[in-house]
Amino acid sequence: MYKRIFCSLFMLALVNSVATAGVIVGGTRIIFHGEKKETAISVANPDDHAWLIQSWVESPDKNKAPFIFSPPLFRLDSQQKNVLRLIYTGTPLPQDRESLFWANIKSIPSASSEENILQIAIKTQIKLIWRPASLEKTVHRSEMAKLSWSWQQGKLQVNNPTPYYMNFHSIDVNGKAIADMKWVAPFAVKQYALPQLARSGKVSWRLINDYGAITRPFEATYSSHSK
């Protein structure tokens, strides 16, 4: 019995240690400016063994996206670094707002000659936001402050009148945090379950900017009559 428990704990520790390894992706998001045909992101291997790197892009509904990685599959040796080129294929996208996709970078371990070694492929998924050339290259704080809030049938509603995706780090209503806030799309509204039943109050939110940094808080009041 004790041997079985020890083996289980050993395997759990091994899985945890492997799951935190893998390549390091040089960014938490990719902003693809519309005037460019391609951009790049780095991948580095800090481990003492090689990884096979497989990369692809998909739309939020898991369909094919108008972007390809080059190279899509390659070997990254120990302590080495490489650059992935991300190429826009030219399929038309909306010119008045941003478009969201997912960039996937999977690290597949090379075959090991050792026995009883658990090898796990690790996938990193980051946002790929295509920003048309007609928009500003950087989302300014003045744009982020344009979000408006209201009470709608027992839920908190946020309205995004801008052409940019607003990615939330946190939303607090009367000092209580809202869970699973994610983002609100351009020219869209989104509703959240309130942490407490209140037709009016103060909402505070922080966003994640183009560089993956967290903004200073924004504050506004909301009510059932807000617009």
From TrEMBL:
Belongs to the periplasmic pilus chaperone family. PROSITE patterns: PILI_CHAPERONE (PS00635). Residues 1-21 form the signal peptide. Keywords: Chaperone, Fimbrium biogenesis, Immunoglobulin domain, Periplasm, Signal. This is Long polar fimbrial chaperone LpfB. Residues 158-215 form the Pili assembly chaperone C-terminal domain. Residues 22-135 form the Pili assembly chaperone N-terminal domain. Gene3D superfamilies: Immunoglobulins. Its main location: periplasm. The keyword Nucleotide-binding does not apply. It comes from Mixta theicola. Coiled coil: none annotated. One of its GO terms (cellular component) is outer membrane-bounded periplasmic space. One of its GO terms (biological process) is cell wall organization. It is found in: Periplasm.
